[in-house]
Amino acid sequence: MTILKSIIEDYPDEQFLKADGFDDAIIGVQISDMRLIYSVSKCLDILVEDMDSLSDAIEYLEYNVIGGYVGEKTPIWCHDLY
Asked: What is the CA radius of gyration of the chain?
């Protein structure tokens, strides 16, 4: 079972805002706000598979994903070890 499926099972009445294409990078949930927590290093691993370089993946992630605020359920980005 994936972490996302486990979170959804544990909190069936909650609505979570997900970042498209990064379900495998979810590492948890912030209980107080019910916001998903993503591993930045796992997101980069996902992006590098489709991009030419790590620097391109970092630029894309920072500008197009992490930089966007989409309301009070905006995901949390954990800058773990690269």
From this structure: 13
